[in-house]
Amino acid sequence: MIVYLHGFNSSPQSIKARLIEARLDELDGLDLFCAPALPHLPKEAIAAVDVLLPDDPSSVTFVGSSLGGFYATHLAEKHGARAVLVNPAVKPQRLLAHLPAEQENLHTKVPWQWTPRHLDELAALEVDPITRPERYLLLVETGDEVLDWRQAVEKYSGVQQVIVEGGDHGFASFTDHVDTILRFAGLLAPPDPLPRPSRRKLAS
Questions:
Q1: Of 27, 33, 67, 150, which has the maximum CB count within 10 A?
Q2: What are the angstrom distances between the C-alpha of 190 and each of 86, 95, 183, 185, 194?
């Protein structure tokens, strides 16, 4: 099962969520996909995900973008699950410390208030260091205009990493990596290896 966690002020209608959903639809695997709308309070966001998980949450792969990557790390450690982190926020409590109080979701246009409580709850969710690096896959683009991709590479050192030159915070090349994510989640078989070249002895 894949649980997609959208970023700050985003929604389940994000392009990356729809691309994963569309690919799983092609594979008749839509029942293995979930993309909840996350409340803006971090503690509530985690609780909203927890109630959706199967009896064995370790079978889940969380795919988190930006702030969703921060949440995915917390949830992967909490449940012993896998996580794919796409341009993840490393310390959002610092990055978002000076946001204006008046906020609006980019997709739903619903207004809400940003308060110091958000920062406290984010700090309480931080995981450092991670355990079992094999449970993680990091995807970053060096052209991210919002986050410093090098911070993610450093925090998640030792995990499988895909570093793409250029791009942006939205991860412009995401389409190229959907199957990689599904293979990491165990929902798509690895490609068949190329056949070894045969050697034929020439007749003398």
A1: 67
A2: 21, 37, 6, 11, 12
Residue 97 belongs to domain spanning: 2-184
Identify whether 15 is part of a domain: yes
Task: Please give the model's pTM, rounded to 2 decimal places.
Answer: 0.91
- Residue 26 burial by Cβ neighbours in a 10 Å radius (0-12, 13-18, 19+): exposed
CATH number of the domain enclosing 91:
3.40.50.1820
Domain count, the chain: 1
Burial of 169 from C-beta contacts in 10 A (0-12 / 13-18 / 19+): middle
Q: DSSP labels for 108-137? A: T--EEE--HHHHHHHHHH--SS-S-GGGEE
Q: Compute φ and ψ for 40, nearest 5 degrees.
A: -75, -20
In a domain, 199, yes or no: no
pLDDT tens by residue, 162-178: 999 999 999 999 999 99
